[in-house]
């Protein structure tokens, strides 16, 4: 009886605190690059709304119903600008608002309402022009653009990757790379040249379809800012190419390893999700956070994993799960590398929505052919990531800390059961690590961060090239898509047009 009375008393205090906060509208904060749409052009702009008085435990669906966002503007010819607005509820008193602009807007206003009233600081207004991402209107000065865009520091991974390269003659280096790695059945790569902010390439290998990912990020950057003339070779395969203690060659790859010295770029997966945000992809670093249905306390206390049979440890994971069904929900979704073992490790199970992973407290990350590219999305989802020790890494791994952002697991998964049992016995600590992981993702892995990383990498690499960059005969020109856009931006021109 006393326990019930105490619970009722605590519930009343929380309810009273929430009502007071709601009534006075205090403690509502806005942040994010979408609040600077004139400076930061993204495929989908985004910002955060934070209610300081709410967390996972005090959250109710009333918060979402009481928050509304309206973003509107004008074009040069009409009083209406086409804008798609999407509010993502993280169910902890914070919301992600993302919006996509389809034409050049003027007099843009961002209105945030709570209980049908503008919150303090709303509306946020901009005279414009506010450009859609498709506009080919590059800023002339890269240094100023990096500052305006929020790309304040050169990531340590870039510094380390480029340390060995000084005064590089790419005319010589490209020939050496082609001579050593042009093996059409096993490797594919493209030689890119950016000259006068135009993109050209030659590709080598039989399977070069992934050049679309490199094309798209370079096209996106050159629409935003005038890049320095630069020359680079981008590996289109999953595996890094340049072995340690061999000839030093400048090859850019999406994945690194302890045995190689390739120059790292963000993976094609997270880059595509950045460029296609609110487009054709459904999985991105923002949508993951807005599709978590359960708070930590309501998640199932088991570890989940789904994937194909691309590594022996994944088969071992099935064995472990079968021996501990109370701790794991694990299944293989496809057999390709170990087809002869399908009878033993099958039957294969259908895919589930990635968002359903976050119905569970514990999320297993095991390598595939290289690093598992789902890792950033797992970090963003608010679960505790159990990460296999690995020789492979992505561009951001150097900033992660064991036991702060994830729980490490031995490469052979020999201590996986022990780590799940630790999490069960230390729920508060596990929850804090999960919160740290999501904060890390928001600080380092959102679209603004991914574009900044690419821009900083190209900027720093261009300083190390010694040869005069010339477009070679026969190179393929990669053009911008046609898009009608007025790049005028002086106050006098805007006033006249309006």
From TrEMBL:
Domain Glycosyl transferase CAP10: 226-468
Pfam families: Filamin, Glyco_transf_90
Gene3D superfamilies the record matches: Immunoglobulins
Chief subcellular location: endoplasmic reticulum
Catalytic activity annotation: L-seryl-[EGF-like domain protein] + UDP-alpha-D-glucose = 3-O-(beta-D-glucosyl)-L-seryl-[EGF-like domain protein] + UDP + H(+); L-seryl-[EGF-like domain protein] + UDP-alpha-D-xylose = 3-O-(beta-D-xylosyl)-L-seryl-[EGF-like domain protein] + UDP + H(+)
Coiled-coil regions listed: none
Pathway annotation from the record: Protein modification
Single GO cellular component term: endoplasmic reticulum lumen
Annotated signal sequence range: 1-20
InterPro entries recorded: CAP10 (IPR006598), Filamin/ABP280_repeat-like (IPR017868), Ig-like_fold (IPR013783), Ig_E-set (IPR014756), O-Glucosyltr/Glycosyltrsf_90 (IPR051091)
Any one GO molecular function term: glucosyltransferase activity
Annotated compartments: Endoplasmic reticulum lumen
Keywords, in A-Z order: Endoplasmic reticulum, Glycoprotein, Glycosyltransferase, Signal, Transferase
Function according to Swiss-Prot or TrEMBL: Protein O-glucosyltransferase. Catalyzes the reaction that attaches glucose through an O-glycosidic linkage to a conserved serine residue found in the consensus sequence C-X-S-X-[PA]-C in epidermal growth factor-like repeats. Regulates Notch signaling by glucosylating Notch in the ER, glucosylation is required for the correct folding and cleavage of Notch.
Family: Belongs to the KDELC family.
Name assigned to this protein: Glycosyl transferase CAP10 domain-containing protein
Species per Swiss-Prot/TrEMBL record: Bombyx mori
